[in-house]
What does this fold into?
Amino acid sequence: MKSIEAILLVVGLLFLYALILAFPTMILWNWLMPRIFGLTQIDIFQSMGINFLSGILFKSNVNIKKD
It folds into this structure.
């Protein structure tokens, strides 16, 4: 039972972390994009998707090894 509780805690914390990161994206999108480009407003889950997609597209894979 302890392992199930630990897994649920980790999943819950990851979801909370994703919501915290998505909130500023949603606020900025809803403030800027409809006025500048005439786009529609987004909700928090769409904002999470934008953050996830931008993480995939713009993630740096550069490894610098100093000997």
The chain has a mean pLDDT of 92. Helices lie at 2-37, 44-58.
